[in-house]
Specification:
The chain has about 325 residues and is of the alpha/beta class. The chain has helices at about 15-25, 40-45, 65-75, 160-170, 190-200, 300-315, 330; strands spanning about 5-10, 30-35, 50-55, 60-65, 80-85, 90-95, 100, 105-115, 155-160, 175-180, 205-210, 215-220, 225-230, 235-240, 245, 265, 270, 285, 290. It folds into two domains: about 5-120 and about 250-330, FAD/NAD(P)-binding domain (3-Layer(bba) Sandwich), CATH 3.50.50; about 130-245, 3-Layer(bba) Sandwich (FAD/NAD(P)-binding domain), CATH 3.50.50.60. α1 runs parallel beside α6 (about 300-315). The longest helix has 19 residues, at about 300-315. Bound molecules: flavin-adenine dinucleotide.
Length: about 325
């Protein structure tokens, strides 16, 4: 059985988990990052790598993936260990701090834990189609990493939220045709984007298939021939498409973290905002997974929580040292 020793184990390689490597490193604290996905980047890389973010301070516009690439560059001097494709399952308090075990039976011994688990070890909500696995990552995608694969193709997008609407607008300029499928008349996405969607319908770039829901798929060898949809009256339509992109959101189950006896409210970990510490000493929660009065689920808020948690855990990592607050302009980048 593999065993890793580190000062802080960071659960979640999303933007906030990654930035906490920097904040810890600047204080001389070693970290190891684990994620159930096979890649780093959390929601930014999995859900919207090519979409521009406009509210990262000092970046008027930066794509989800660029942000992650920059964070990756920023934390390089600290050389963190990454354990990818493994979910954290159990924790046990011990003399040194915590002993953590993973879905692949790895053991990690750490003095503190940073939970930066976002919405939990996430996976897409899938449409109820028999044999959907045959088509996944061939003609059905739950997230987009390279939009050029849809150039001049016929694409069906399903869902009623921001992801479905945003991607329909984004892809409309390169696809041959987009079918936008939703089971209700009303869309939940940002109103100005819903307006844009309907203006693209008028220009014949998008065909609205509303109110319809997914019924079945016909195809072979992972390629779709037709996507069949039906409405509440049982009327059916068969759409000839090359790709199907269902955007039904993510499951937001915290999984095993729920059993760790941390104070939880509405699937979020309650923390003291002044320290980012949870109800268990030595366990901190930062980013989308944590909650306190006035909490905003934004990347910039998570970055600030990472800095606060790093300062707060210092005493536990180095009980004999005194923490002197320093600007990075004074300290430079320390590296480990
Ligand atoms: C479409 C969309 C657009 C957005 N636009 C913006 C925007 O413009 N500005 C903005 O500030 N925010 C935006 N957000 C929100 C932003 O992406 C989140 O606030 C941010 O990703 C939270 O970062 P995080 O590191 O806390 O968690 P996440 O990015 O969710 O990463 C958490 C990671 O933890 C992993 N994990 C969870 N549980 C476990 C476990 N038990 N074991 C191992 N790994 C685990 C998950 O697999 C995941 O990779 C947007 C979100 C979406 C979906």
């Amino acid at each position: 059985m593999n065993k890793t020793y580190t000062d802080v184990l960071i659960i979640g390689a999303g933007p906030v988990g990654l930035f906490s490597v920097f904040e810890l490193g600047q204080l001389g604290i070693k970290s190891c990052v684990i994620d159930s996905l096979n890649m780093i980047g959390g929601q930014c890389s999995s859900l919207y790598p090519e979409k521009p973010i406009y509210d990262i301070p000092a970046y008027p516009k930066i794509s989800g993936q660029e942000l992650i690439d920059n964070l990756s560059q920023q934390i390089k001097p600290f050389n963190p260990k990454f354990i990818l494709g493994e979910r954290v399952e159990k924790i046990k308090e011990n003399r040194e701090g915590f002993l953590v075990s993973t879905s692949n039976n790895q053991l990690i011994n750490c003095k503190c834990l940073f939970i930066a688990a976002g919405n939990g070890a996430f996976g897409p909500n899938k449409p109820p189609i028999i044999n959907i696995e045959e088509y996944e990552n061939k003609s059905i995608f739950y997230h987009i990493t390279d939009k050029l694969m849809f150039k001049q193709k016929r694409v069906a997008i399903a869902g009623g939220g921001d992801s479905a609407v945003d991607w329909a607008i984004e892809l409309a300029s390169i696809t041959e045709k987009i079918f936008f499928i939703h089971r209700r008349d009303k869309l939940r996405a940002a109103p100005n984007n819903v307006e844009k969607l309907y203006s693209l319908e008028k220009k014949n770039k998008i065909e609205m298939i509303i109110p319809y829901q997914i019924d079945s798929i016909e195809g072979s060898n992972g390629e779709i021939n037709s996507l069949n949809v039906k409405n509440l009256n049982g009327e059916k339509k068969s759409l000839s498409v090359d790709f199907f992109l269902p955007f039904f959101g993510l499951s937001s189950d915290l999984g095993p973290i729920k059993d760790w006896e941390l104070e939880i409210e509405k699937n979020l970990l309650l923390v003291d905002q002044s320290t980012s510490q949870t109800s268990i000493e030595g366990i901190f929660a930062i980013g989308d997974v944590c909650s306190y009065p006035g909490k905003l689920k934004l990347i910039l808020t998570g970055f600030s929580e990472a800095a606060i948690a790093a300062q707060s855990c210092f005493k536990r990592i180095f009980p004999d040292k005194v923490l002197h607050f320093e600007y990075s302009t004074t300290s430079g980048v320390k590296g480990l």
